[in-house]
Amino acid sequence: MDIRNLPAIAVLSDAVTVCEFQGIKIIRVIHETAEAGISLHGGHLIWYKPADEDDVIWLSEKAEFDTSKAIRGGVPVCWPWFGKAGTPSHGFARNSQWSLKEHRENEYGVIVALELEDSEATREIWPHKFHNQLTFEFGPQLKVSLTSTNTDDADWSFSGALHSYFHVGDIKDVVITDMGQSYLDNIQNGKACQGDEKLTFTQETDRVYTQPQDTVTISDSKLSRKILVTNEGHNAAVIWNPWQELSISMADMADNSFETMVCVESTIHGEGVTLVPGESHTLTTHIAVSK
């Protein structure tokens, strides 16, 4: 069944409904400016389509909607760490149940805010108190903001990412610019490298760009568009495409699905950000399409 056309189990407003797929509740937005869906499992954006545009966000056709794991594609929330800095990989936020805090709409678009707080289960994994608010602003453009607040009585540090998967026509025709030239190559165990001003794809790519411009540009000649990814509160941009061999090894990716996706992630890398009690930090990605 197409998850976008599931029957509503609750109507929250003219533009916002709730549906359910395999036990996972999805906040669905249908507005004249854009359509979107957010899984409460993971606080995970699973689709976003501006009016009169192709899908901007990529979701694997074999994505597994299972509360024990993250969904492949969309915009997973990696928090309170990025990568394999702890267990589970990329942190627990993308496997946690978020709650709907508020939703608002007007003629220009829809805002949906979710929240996640520490619990006995999260403190067993990461022994700190916190409050996270994840805000989605849907319209002709998309803005996703993750605000993390230290509600503990001691300092703590975190890293993370808004792990955005973008839909492209053909990865072989994609050019990425403005990501900078300095990167850590995860294919080479994090080796520090210098690259070109333009990135094209001919093999598996997994890089942490350490001096990106605020706006990274994905030029997609097959779909005749550019996706502008503007990030704030970050110190790196991760760019990833698994290519075929790794795609084949993943149960939740089709063998050739690497051809239509690329990740450009707003990332807090390395030692990350330290918050004192009561302090907050916001990590943002702003996504716009241009011809």
UniProtKB/TrEMBL annotation:
- Which GO terms are recorded in the biological process aspect for this UniProt protein? carbohydrate metabolic process
This enzyme catalyses:
alpha-D-glucose 6-phosphate = beta-D-glucose 6-phosphate
What family is it from?
Belongs to the glucose-6-phosphate 1-epimerase family.
Active-site residues (renumbered): 163, 265
Q: What is its EC number?
A: 5.1.3.15
Task: Give the record's keywords alphabetically.
Answer: Isomerase
Query: What name is this protein filed under?
Result: Putative glucose-6-phosphate 1-epimerase
Gene3D superfamilies, per database record: 2.70.98.10
Q: Which SUPFAM superfamilies match?
A: Galactose mutarotase-like (SSF74650)
At the highest ranks, the source species' classification is:
Bacteria, Pseudomonadati, Pseudomonadota, Gammaproteobacteria, Vibrionales
User: What species is this protein from?
Assistant: Photobacterium marinum
The record ties this protein, via InterPro entries, to: Aldose_1/G6P_1-epimerase, G6P_1-epimerase, Gal_mutarotase_sf_dom, GH-type_carb-bd
The UniProt entry, under Pfam families, shows:
Aldose_epim
Q: Which PANTHER family match?
A: APOSPORY-ASSOCIATED PROTEIN C-RELATED, GLUCOSE-6-PHOSPHATE 1-EPIMERASE
Which molecular-function annotations from GO does this UniProt entry contain? Answer: carbohydrate binding; glucose-6-phosphate 1-epimerase activity
